[in-house]
Design a protein that fits this description.
By secondary structure, this protein is mostly helical. The protein has helices at residues 9-17, 38-46, 50-59, 63-75, 79-89, 92-114, 129-142, 145-154, 158-167, 171-179, 186-200, 203-212, 216-226, 231-241, 249-261, 265-274, 278-287, 291-299, 312-321, 325-334, 338-354, 358-372, 401-404, 410-438, 448-463, 476-490, 493-503, 510-523, 603-611, 620-629, 672-681, 692-705; strands spanning 651-654, 660-663. One of its GO terms (biological process) is protein localization to cilium.
Length: 719
């Protein structure tokens, strides 16, 4: 009795009790031996006697024989025997299959009954598609997939075979059966495969399969959300394969966005250009700070009006971060943000002054002055800043808004004009003061004449504007010190005394004050006058001016001076108010006279007059003869050379000494000023100078020094 081996101990005990005492079998150990009934079972299975086979199996057969009985009974639709056999082997999968088969069979029988017929019996059963389907399903459950697929095909149920291989993820086998069937949608099979690839996380394969079935949108969505390895290449491939039509525009735009995200800017740009998505391309350039390409795109005539000018605001900010401030200012103006442009220039100016970069400060003040008088795009006379600067009147001091065609508030225009004038003044002051500041830097070259001229210019300019206010950062101590030393060295002793007197009013270091006092003591031995050759001469009225303008307060002038607004203070002539035009290289006074054409004259006409070649005779006799005959040199004013004094004309002619004379009358003798000069200085024939300009200059200097009178009888009393 081997209870542990699974032998029925109850039956063994019963047999042992049945043995008589003192019999041959007494005291014998009985063991139960199971004898399989497989052979009888096989015989009944061959005869398809499934009830007898089941009874024999109950006597004892191995598990494999139970499975064989269950499967064969199921194939013959003997569901009760098959179910009991599957219960014996505890195969729940087949039990569920039997339930499904039995339910479908009942539904099929109901159809036959309703049609007045019956299910085929006997040999016809092999041709029944439903029975073949059941057999194929049983084969599939057994693992015989190829046989099951063939049986499905015999049953004309290829869909079931494809579903089986699809469930098994044997896609190639499924495609083979799908190709042999006209009813199967190959794309649907690919969709199922793509869906399975999604389930297993094979995103790249899923995207490729979605593209192959004509669903690129789903493929792009998967690549964009999952971003598998090498996804940009897949997106580029999809974008290249798609046609650039309206139906694919949204998909291509998403491809371009993903490529831009992957830093594939060249591919994204190609897509944007093919789709004519200029705004999106501009956003790409802006996000990458590729401003040169962005500006080029905006300047393209084909894209005119497609972009909001506010896009140049971040461009200006980027330029400012790159320390390209001039370009940033231009970008702000192009964006129509004059307030931002002015604010930046003011900040740059302040920084330059604080950092003692006075030349830069002067440049930014000059830009501010220009910005103040520029009409903006919103103003009636403003033009497109992206193509051409708006018209700027050369001399704003001479312009009345109504006459100039500016539809602006006169009060506002007057404020702009005053601010423009002040900014220009500060620009000149800071630029000039940079030369003074350089003198206090190590290893800086120095020129006494240049130092004298620039310091003199600064003193006169600072005294003549903004009520004598001094811009921030400008040191009067340094200016006056430079002026005093250079004036003393050049012989302008009177000016040097003035500079030292002003220095006494300022606070300065003790060692510098001691040096200054020594210079003042040495200066006491010098004459109280300035060297005459240092005195500036006005090239407009030929008046010799003092070095220091005595008119330190602004005031009116009898004439309406276009260039000076009636002021005679500052660095200008004390007689006519004409400003001294200085070279900002060495601040020497240039022989230039400022003039402004009439407002009703076109710029081209003014340029033509300036470029007109003036005719002149080779000798004085020809000049006099032509003057008397009325056919002399061409008058600058366009007249006929008439000597009538009421018709005053500027006429250019040459003297016997080779000099050029610009006179108001055809005959120089008729000009009162020239006549007086000749009367006072003597003619060339009497031994006087043949150069009328030198005669006039000598006479003016003599009058300035007090050595000459206006009495013509005292001619020749010298210069």
């Amino acid at each position: 009795n081997e209870k542990g081996g699974g032998v029925d101990s109850t039956l063994v005990d019963a047999m042992a009790e049945a043995v008589p005492a003192d019999s041959l079998l007494d005291n014998t150990n009985l063991k139960m031996i199971e004898v399989p009934q497989s052979i009888p079972l096989y015989r009944f299975l061959e005869e398809k006697n499934y009830d007898a086979a089941y009874a024999i199996a109950c006597l004892g057969v191995p598990k494999e024989d139970w499975s064989l009985l269950a499967i064969q009974a199921a194939q013959e639709l003997i569901f009760d025997v098959a179910r009991k056999a599957f219960i014996r082997v505890q195969d729940t999968r087949f039990i569920d299959l039997l339930d499904s088969m039995e339910r479908r069979l009942m539904q099929e029988d109901a159809k036959y009954v309703s049609n007045g017929g019956g299910r085929p019996k006997g040999g016809d059963m092999d041709e029944d598609s439903l029975l073949l389907t059941f057999r194929a399903e049983i084969m599939a459950y057994q693992g015989f997939y190829q046989d099951a697929a063939k049986t499905f095909a015999r049953a004309k149920n290829v869909d079931a075979a494809i579903d089986m291989f699809a469930d098994l993820r044997q896609w190639e086998e499924a495609k083979i059966f799908a190709a042999s069937s006209d009813k199967i949608d190959f794309k649907e099979l690919m969709r199922r495969q793509a869906s399975w690839a999604e389930d297993v996380g094979d995103w790249s394969s899923a995207a490729d399969m979605y593209v192959s079935v004509g669903e690129p949108a789903r493929a792009v969505e998967i690549l964009g959300s999952r971003k598998p390895l090498g996804w940009p290449e897949h997106v580029i491939k999809i974008a290249h394969e798609l046609k650039h039509g309206p139906e694919n525009r949204q998909i291509l735009m998403e491809c371009a966005r993903l490529l831009a995200e992957a830093n594939e800017d060249s591919e994204a740009k190609t897509i944007f250009l093919k789709l004519d998505a200029i705004n999106d391309l501009m956003e790409l350039y802006i996000s990458r700070n590729r401003w040169p390409e962005a500006v080029t795109l905006a300047d393209d005539p084909a894209n005119k009006g497609k972009f909001d000018k506010s896009m140049f605001v971040p461009y200006a900010e980027w330029l400012a971060e790159q320390d390209r401030y001039d370009e940033a200012l231009a970008a702000y103006r192009r964006a129509g943000r004059r307030d931002r442009s002015v604010a930046m220039m003011e900040q740059l100016t302040y920084n330059a002054v604080v950092e003692c970069r006075f030349k830069d400060a002067g440049y930014y003040y000059w830009l501010l002055a220009e910005e103040i008088i520029k009409p903006s795009d919103e103003e009636p006379n403003g033009e497109n800043l992206g193509h051409k600067d708006p018209k700027i009147i050369p001399d704003i001091e001479c312009v009345e808004p109504a006459k100039a065609g500016w539809d602006v508030d006169p009060v506002l225009f007057a404020g702009k004009k005053q601010q423009h004038h002040e900014y220009l003044r500060r620009a000149d002051v800071y630029y000039a003061y940079q030369l003074i500041d350089n003198l206090y830097q190590p290893f800086s070259p120095s020129n006494t004449t240049s130092n004298f001229q620039v310091s003199l210019y600064l003193v006169n300019t600072l005294a003549g504007g903004s009520n004598g206010s001094i811009p921030h950062g400008v040191s009067m101590l340094r200016i006056l010190t430079t002026l005093a030393k250079s004036a003393k060295a050049l012989g302008a002793f009177k000016l040097a005394r003035y500079a030292y007197d002003r220095l006494l009013l300022l606070v300065m270091p003790a060692e510098e004050r001691e040096s200054m006092e020594l210079d003042m003591l040495a200066l006491q031995a010098k004459p109280v006058r300035d060297f005459p050759e240092l005195l500036p001469v006005c090239f407009r009225c030929h008046t010799t001016n003092p070095l220091l303008n005595p008119l330190l307060q602004t005031g009116g002038h009898p004439r309406e001076l276009c260039h000076g607004t009636g002021y005679t203070s500052g660095d200008r002539c004390t007689n006519c108010g004409h400003p001294f035009i200085r070279s900002f290289a060495n601040f020497e006074i240039l022989p230039l006279v400022e003039f402004v054409p009439s407002m009703d004259m076109e710029d081209e006409d003014a340029l033509d007059l300036i470029r007109t070649v003036k005719s002149s005779d080779k000798d004085s006799e020809g000049a006099q003869g032509s003057s008397q005959s009325g056919t002399g040199p061409r008058a600058f004013g366009g007249g006929k050379g008439d000597v009538n004094r009421n018709n005053r004309e500027w006429v250019e002619r040459q003297t016997t000494g080779g000099g050029s004379v610009l006179s108001m009358y055809s005959n120089p003798e008729e000009e009162p000023a020239i006549g007086n000069i000749r009367a006072g200085s003597g003619s060339a024939r009497d031994g006087g100078s043949a150069d009328l300009f030198n005669d006039a200059l000598n006479r003016a200097l003599a009058i300035q020094e007090g050595h000459h009178t206006n009495n013509h009888s005292s001619a020749g009393e010298g210069k």
